[in-house]
Design a protein that fits this description.
Elements (H helix, E strand, L loop, with lengths): L14 H13 L4 H14 L4 H13 L3 H17 L9 H4 L5 H12 L8 H12 L3 H14 L4 H13 L3 H14 L4 H13 L3 H14 L5 H10 L3 H14 L4 H13 L16 H7 L5 H7 L3 H15 L4 H14 L5 H15 L11 H10 L1
Organism: Reyranella soli
Keywords: Repeat, TPR repeat
Protein name: Tetratricopeptide repeat protein
């Protein structure tokens, strides 16, 4: 049974989070000085774990080390900002990636206390937390438990479809999302989820139909959301119009800045960044379009698979005007690396399809990663 006495076991790849939970258990019983040492070691081992940094700051505060505590709180705030949130056209629970295992632990305690008799919220909340911390198997268990209590809830069907897709079970995900769309055909987020599952199943035309329908349903004033859908379709003319308005409302959003430059360059227009340089990621990608970094420097800055996919896609945009064959190879690699629900994956797939219709002078044979790096560096 989910909840009650059911204790989630960590999925593969979650050992650092398990270490965090074990540390927190010890912190509750150990002297403050010992707890501070444990958390300092944990923060050193997991520099991106902002929840551990916050807990460390709390212990320092209790020890009277106010300046050190403030420094940790500020560090946690900066680390949160470095996490790329999901794009605004996706369901809300996929956008918030700062959920911590401490929240999951809290929801589990609520369920153990008997809150499971009061409705679906604890299951839904914990399911969303599992999904955003990349534990889709556990998320699916909670969503299924919630669906037993509310079988017609379309939002739960969307969440279940997202969990199945994260597990690579795309055909099952499509069946669930078909139910969600049938239940609420005017729901843009349900269409968004189904579109990326259709894309993962290579049903590109059907995915495009869902994105176009999503655009019809979205309010005109949701410029950031509409821009993201247009970018997935690689419709840069439409994206540019929406991005201008989105940046006007929120000039500090680095991804809106980046995608504005992307659209300008892909349309062959003059590229002029409108704001001060962004020092953190995606700053190197903005600097590429601004002529301040070369391709090899951009690739060197892409220090994880997600960033590498973004870099390869942008290098394809950068290469398109002068070497379409290279652009195609870069986009192929971006599509292979990027998660199916990212803008880069969808846009790269559409770009590759266009190159098939209007091919470059030489073949689009797949390049190895070493060849791609060599080509990019030669620029």
């Amino acid at each position: 049974m989910v909840g009650g006495n059911w204790r989630p076991s960590p999925e593969r790849g979650t050992d650092p989070e398990l270490r965090y939970l074990r540390t927190i258990v010890r912190v509750r019983t150990d002297p403050l000085e010992a707890s501070e040492r444990r958390l300092a070691e944990l923060v050193a081992a997991q520099p991106t774990a902002f929840h551990a940094v916050e807990e460390h700051g709390s212990i320092l505060d209790r020890l009277g080390q106010r300046d050190a505590a403030r420094a940790e709180y500020e560090s946690a705030r900066r680390r949160r900002q470095l996490i790329r949130r999901g794009m605004p056209d996706r369901p809300f629970f996929t956008r918030h990636r700062t959920t911590s295992v401490a929240e999951i632990d809290g929801y589990t305690k609520v369920l153990r206390a008997g809150a499971s008799n009061k409705g679906i919220f604890p299951y839904v909340a914990r399911g969303h937390a599992y999904l955003t911390t990349r534990r889709p198997r556990l998320a699916l268990l909670d969503y299924d438990e919630a669906l037993k209590r509310a079988p017609q809830e379309s939002g739960l069907l969307v969440a279940r479809g997202e969990a199945l897709a994260a597990l690579g079970r795309h055909r099952e995900a499509l069946q669930t999302l078909d139910q969600a769309v049938a239940s609420r055909p005017q729901d843009p987020e349900a269409l968004s989820s189904r579109a990326f599952v259709l894309l993962a199943l290579d049903r590109v035309a059907e995915a495009d139909a869902d994105w176009l329908r999503q655009l019809e349903l979205l309010p005109r004033e949701r410029h950031d959301v509409r821009a993201c859908v247009a970018l997935r379709l690689a419709n840069y003319d439409m994206a540019l119009v929406e991005l201008e308005s989105a940046i006007g409302r929120n000039p500090a959003d680095p991804y809106m800045q980046l995608y504005f430059l992307t659209s300008l360059r892909r349309l062959g227009r003059s590229v002029q960044p409108r704001v001060d340089p962004v020092t953190v990621w995606p700053g190197p990608l903005i600097a590429l379009h601004d002529g301040k970094l070369c391709p090899s420097e951009v690739l060197a800055a892409a220090d994880n698979p997600e960033r590498r996919a973004e870099a390869l896609f942008q290098l394809g945009i950068w290469s398109y005007d002068h070497d379409r064959a290279e652009a195609g190879r870069l986009w192929r690699q971006a599509a292979e690396i990027a998660a199916p629900d990212t803008i880069e994956h969808a846009a790269a797939r559409h770009e590759i399809e266009r190159l098939r219709i209007d091919p470059p002078p030489i073949s689009l044979g797949r390049a190895t990663e070493r060849e791609t790096n060599k080509m990019a560096i030669s620029k």
